[in-house]
């Protein structure tokens, strides 16, 4: 973090008049970064307003996106494979093709998001994947399923990095983890809600001559489209575009973020040169590996947990209902980890701890095949571990990137590269390996270990860089423009471990 002893220099966008010490505990000044708050409000009230205007929208958006992405696993339990005559690895291929555009278009999507604003771009994406999800429920062939899954990936590819990018432009590093985990927890809520909803929609089997699996896609896709229409007029944007803030409040938000992360160059377009410069940084590649290693077990669980639970001899409805509790517990555990991480202002140990939990869960599943209760309990460990560690890793990496251009590119790279793991996950759990899925569990453990090793390496690189900057000359004569362009490479910047 930037030193509080050197507040930002005065310019047209920043409040810099620091009040005397005897005013620092009243409503005029209550920010721990030595940034004065407007006299008519407080930091706590303003942060609460930001939460109210930002977080609920992102939670709903990603809940719907994740639900439309993984509901194919619920549809599979209600006869999708039989009706479309899928055989061999065709179901796995349908899962895989979703990730092709998801990997390719992450960085272009974040560039377009900055150009058109989050409200316009993310709402259009929401409308798009709602329509495609409905079409998924109307397909009559394997080719139709592949086409809809591909275009679902096209429209959904901007959701995750775009939402994380937007969060990073509103919150300081020390307060971001709770918001990141609450947003990311929408995946757990989607998993729980999807199981409950699928069990209910499954009862519609045969209504108007449509099988239950078709109704899952049609109803959930229609809901997404309607929400997208509302978001087109109400979805939040960057602080510079927030009309619900007064001018002095916008200036305060910019000032506190600048004191924490440096100037962000919000007004400058992102260029191909920016992309090339960011990708020269080794930390960017390590960040991608951290996320990549967890995506394999995470999507392995999301796509195949109903199939795994089916091997415990439950019917279609009971399988959906039994898939709910692990997701619900994972959400609660992720929020506990996030609160503790923000309180400690530390990320590394709060990433490694849940990773170890997930390894333990997969180890039990790999070794135990005759104790249903223990196997089901292991699913809790897997879900809790992976879906608690992932938001910590993304927040840790994202909030250590300074400036709009480095954060937009770096976040999109981490998510885009990481989702290559989704392709691996779709072929890790094959129907021929049922009921034990030894290959899938072994592959998942291997990639979790890769993530853990990458986290250790990333923490070491940050620690070494902070030490180097502490020992170097603090004032190297950089202009404000140069500091803005450098982002987190600015010698005054300190990385959070």
CATH level-four homologous superfamily name: MFS general substrate transporter like domains
What form results from the Cα inertia axes?
A: globular
The portion of residues forming beta strands comes to: under 5%
Specify the number of helices.
Answer: 21
- Structural class from helices and strands? mainly alpha
Mean pLDDT: 82
Helix amount, in percent? over 70%
CATH architecture name:
Up-down Bundle
Question: Radius of gyration in whole Å, from Cα?
Answer: 23 Å
Assembly status: single chain
Task: Tally the beta strands.
Answer: 0
Uncertain regions spanning at least 5 consecutive residues: 1-31
Assigned CATH class: Mainly Alpha
- Helix and strand sequence: HHHHHHHHHHHHHHHHHHHHH
Region (Disordered): 1-23
GO molecular function, one term: transmembrane transporter activity
Membrane topology: Multi-pass membrane protein
Subcellular location: Membrane
Question: Topology of this structure?
Answer:
Blueprint: H1 43-76, H2 80-83, H3 90-97, H4 99-104, H5 106-116, H6 118-136, H7 142-156, H8 159-168, H9 173-201, H10 212-234, H11 247-261, H12 272-278, H13 282-310, H14 316-322, H15 324-344, H16 348-367, H17 372-399, H18 404-418, H19 420-426, H20 438-471, H21 480-486
Helix pairs in contact: 1-6, 1-8, 1-9, 1-10, 1-13, 3-7, 3-19, 5-6, 5-18, 6-7, 6-8, 6-10, 8-18, 9-14, 9-15, 9-17, 13-14, 13-17, 13-18, 13-19, 13-20, 15-17, 16-17, 16-20, 17-18
InterPro entries: MFS (IPR011701), MFS_dom (IPR020846), MFS_trans_sf (IPR036259)
Region (Disordered): 1-23
Subcellular location: Membrane
């Amino acid at each position: 973090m930037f030193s509080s002893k050197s507040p930002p220099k005065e310019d047209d966008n920043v409040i810099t008049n620091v009040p005397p010490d005897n005013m620092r505990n009243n409503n005029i000044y209550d920010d721990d970064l030595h940034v004065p708050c407007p006299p008519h409000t407080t930091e706590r009230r303003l942060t609460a307003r930001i939460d109210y205007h930002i977080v609920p929208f992102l939670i709903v958006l990603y809940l719907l996106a994740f639900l439309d992405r993984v509901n194919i696993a619920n549809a599979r339990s209600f006869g999708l494979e039989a009706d479309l005559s899928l055989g061999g690895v065709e179901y796995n291929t349908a899962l895989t093709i979703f990730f092709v555009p998801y990997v390719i278009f992450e960085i272009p999507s974040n560039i377009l998001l900055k150009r058109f604003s989050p409200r316009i771009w993310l709402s259009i994406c929401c409308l798009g994947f709602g329509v495609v999800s409905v079409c998924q429920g109307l397909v009559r062939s394997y080719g139709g399923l592949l086409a809809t899954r591909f275009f679902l990936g096209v429209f959904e590819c901007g959701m995750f990095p775009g939402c994380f990018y937007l969060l990073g432009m509103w919150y300081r590093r020390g307060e971001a983890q709770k918001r990141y985990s609450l947003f990311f927890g929408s995946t757990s809520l989607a998993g729980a809600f999807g199981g409950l909803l699928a069990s209910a929609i499954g009862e519609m089997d045969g209504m108007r001559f449509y099988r239950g699996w078709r109704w899952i896609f049609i109803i959930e896709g229609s809901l997404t489209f309607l929400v997208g229409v509302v978001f087109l007029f109400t979805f939040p944007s960057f602080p510079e575009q927030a009309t619900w803030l007064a001018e002095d409040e916008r200036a305060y938000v910019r000032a506190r973020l600048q004191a924490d992360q440096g100037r962000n160059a919000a007004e400058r377009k992102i260029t191909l040169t920016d992309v090339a410069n960011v990708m020269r940084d080794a930390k960017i590649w390590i960040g991608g590996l951290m996320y990549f290693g967890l995506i394999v077990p995470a999507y392995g669980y999301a796509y195949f947990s109903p199939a795994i639970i089916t091997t415990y001899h439950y019917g279609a409805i009971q399988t959906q209902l039994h898939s709910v509790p692990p997701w619900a517990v994972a959400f609660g555990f992720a929020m506990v980890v996030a609160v503790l991480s923000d309180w400690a202002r530390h990320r590394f140990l709060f990433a490694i701890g849940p990773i170890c939990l997930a390894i333990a869960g997969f180890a039990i599943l790999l070794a135990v095949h005759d104790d249903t209760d223990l196997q089901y309990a292991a699913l809790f460990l897997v879900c809790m571990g992976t879906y608690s560690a992932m938001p910590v890793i993304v927040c840790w990496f994202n909030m250590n990137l300074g400036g709009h251009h480095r954060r937009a590119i770096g976040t999109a790279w981490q998510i885009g590269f990481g989702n290559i793991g989704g392709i691996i996950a779709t072929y890790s759990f094959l129907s021929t390996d049922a009921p034990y899925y030894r290959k899938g569990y072994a592959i998942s453990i291997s990639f979790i270990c890769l993530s853990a090793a990458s986290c250790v390496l990333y923490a070491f690189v940050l620690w070494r860089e902070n030490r180097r900057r502490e020992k170097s000359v603090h004032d190297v004569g950089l202009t404000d423009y140069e500091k803005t362009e450098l982002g987190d490479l600015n010698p005054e910047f300190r990385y959070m471990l």
